[in-house]
Amino acid sequence: MSAPQKWFSVWCVLIFSASLLTGCASSLVGNSAVQISPTSAVLLPGQQLQFTAVTGVPSPPQFLWEVNGVPGGSASTGTISTDGVYTAPSSPYGQPIQVSIAHQTAVAALSIYDPNHPSPGVVASTQNPLVASYSITIPMGASVQVQFGLNTAYGLETSAASSTTGGTQTIYVAGMLASTTYHMQAVVNLLGGGQVTDADHSFTTGVIPAGITPNISTQLTGAGTLSSGIELLSLTQGTDQNLLCALATDLAGNVIWYYPLPTGAYPFPIKQLPNGHMIMILAGTRFVFREIDLAGNIIRDLTAAEVNQTLSRIASFQMGGFTHDFAILPNGHYIFLVTLEETINNAPGIPQGTQVGGNALIDWDPQQNKAVWAWSTFDHLQLSHAPYGLSDWTHGNAIIYSPDDGNLIFSMRNQNWVVKINYQDGDGDGSILWTLGPGGDFTLPNQEAPIEWNYGQHYPSIVSSNSSGIFSLMFFNNGNDRLMDSNNDVCGTSGVGACYSSVPILQLNEYDKTASVLWEDNLSPAYSICCGDALVLPSGNVEFDVAYDQNTPNVSYIEEVTQTQAPELIWRMNITGQLAYRGLRVPSLYPGQVWPANPTQNVRPPNIPH
Q1: Between vectors from CA 147 to CA 114 and to CA 126, what angle results, nearest 5°?
Q2: Residue of 87, 64, 63, 65 lying closest to 77 (CA atoms)
């Protein structure tokens, strides 16, 4: 082959290869490859939205944007620039609008919201007889919330829902009594100001199935002012295994929301998430970490096996089950409190083969679905400190987050200790910074020690504006085996006073490790040997759950009292036949909303033991 022929052949190959590459690129941005983002939107007149062609190939060619098949659009349907910025028409357009790209099949559907003639909302029932579904269309950047009540004065509100591109928003309306007609109305808050209110809708709630409503009663004493909110209850199963265990009531004890659980199951506990969902440890039949919406739809389930799959990458142990509590962190992570058992073979003074029941804490990232930090009692506590023995050595029951220093505060009932753990938002080494309780790092004034130490305590909560340095900590002090005097005489023994529970607020000084009692409600003769909680309400009153008072068998009770030197009882809820593992006053069923106290009972009893 001559040189000219050789160069001609090479040139032909290059041209042929280039044509193949061009054809390949064309196919990648052909009809099936190009997508438009977003795929739909609802806009106000004159509102703008950036559309993007998603091709999956680098440096795609510039496209010709169209509105209803017209390149660049029109004044009546809206215009779109060469780089995909769509501008809605100045007046509402009653027909469908499609944004597309010339020679491509993908389209984005648009509609123009008319604030003067909005589409009415639709209210429907859900699988929960006490929860309604309210759906309504809103424009891009707007938010909507539903006001509801027994008449058109409404009085209660849901949280607001918003949308970046507009469209149909569905809000679950919860907090209603059974077999009752309610009025509800959506209020749309437009971007840049302005409001659109939907028409009033009526909705009649369903009937709670027979035989599942807990035996709950409430009483007001007439003293003080009842605080706002509702009760979120985590009950265990009693003799009747069909009774509701995960529920919320108004302050008259009426059920206003519930989540039915399988027979024998109970929440351990249930809490609210910032997004309005409920989340719980589902205990009894099997231990599952479950998130649900207010209608009861399961958003996610997480099992111990799934946690252990990722835990093996960062820890030398495998968890047993979820137990007693979990913390919801500001970054969206969860701190799981889990069971952990080890066989001890080489510890001084402990028989070989002894089974020890401890606990672990696991930082779980729900976005990545993996464990990212772990902590074990076996790594940081001495087995020689075992006030209640080794089979249930620690019995952790509560975990809270300290926002000032990013550390964790952990309650261990069977250690009689509350400890602060060096977590530092996942960067800490897990060392115990201090222990609070008998034999711990803090000292009490002579007149307060040892009787005021925490014994078998539950549910610590930070009640000051700060959580480190000098701050205030509250808990339900069950008082198990309380030391009553300087001789360390144990309550309930011959010649010593009876055991009792109390609700103290302690001031802790982390610098010099001193503690003192700022306030206390001595509940004697009440003596709750397990469970319970205590918290300061926004009003300044104190609420606590006396779950297992030996003086009132088969009855748990929750009380609200004044935070005064001589606390006065304001309100009491009695729960018969079930143990109230936790009973917590929450502002409402919706984050950011506070519902007023509105009990339907106003009976002043002649005498309530307190």
Answers
A1: 95
A2: 87
Those residues whose C-beta lies under 8 Å from the C-beta of residue 411, and which sit 6 or more positions away, are 396, 397, 398, 399, 417, 418, 457, 458, 459, 460, 475
Asked if 207 and 178 touch (Cβ cutoff 8 Å), the reply is: yes
The contacts of residue 282 (CB under 8 Å, 6+ apart) are 261, 265, 267, 268, 288, 289, 290
Q: Are 599 and 585 in contact (CB under 8 A)?
A: no
d(CA 214, CA 470): 42
Single-letter amino acid code for the residue at 600: T
Q: How far apart are the first and last CA of the chain?
A: 111
Q: Which of 255, 297, 254 is CA-nearest to residue 278?
A: 297
pLDDT digit string, tens, across residues 107-131: 999 999 999 999 999 999 999 999 9
pLDDT tops 70 at residue 15: no
* 351-400 pLDDT tens trace: 999 999 999 999 999 999 999 999 999 999 999 999 999 999 999 999 99
pTM exceeds 0.85: yes
H helical segments located in 404-480 = none
Give the torsion through C-alpha atoms of 343, 348, 352, 357, to 10 deg: -30
**Burial zone of 178 (CB within 10 Å; 0-12 exposed, 13-18 middle, 19+ buried):** middle
Select from 486, 561, 485 the least CA-distant residue to 526: 561
Query: Alpha-carbon torsion 457, 461, 463, 468, what sign?
Result: positive
pLDDT, tens digit (0-9, with 9 covering 90-100), for 288-338: 999 999 999 999 999 999 999 999 999 999 999 999 999 999 999 999 999
Beta strands in 77-130 (DSSP E): 78-80, 85-87, 97-101, 107-112, 122-125
Domains of the chain (ranges plus CATH)?
35-112 (2.60.40.1080), 122-204 (2.60.40)
Q: Which residue has the tokens 């599942």?
A: 212
SS (H, E, C) 191-237: CCCCEEECCCEEEECCCCCCCCCCEEEEEECCCCCCCCCEEEEEECC
Distance of CA 205 to the CA centre of its chain: 26
- Type of residue at 289: F
Question: Which string of DSSP letters, residue by residue, matches 339-371?
Answer: EEEEEE-S-TTS-TTEEEEEEEEEEEETTTTEE
Could you tell me whether strands 396-402 and 407-412 are parallel, antiparallel, or unpaired per DSSP bridges?
A: antiparallel
* CA nearest neighbour of 381 among 416, 352, 353, 405: 416
| CB 213, CB 562: distance < 8 Å | no
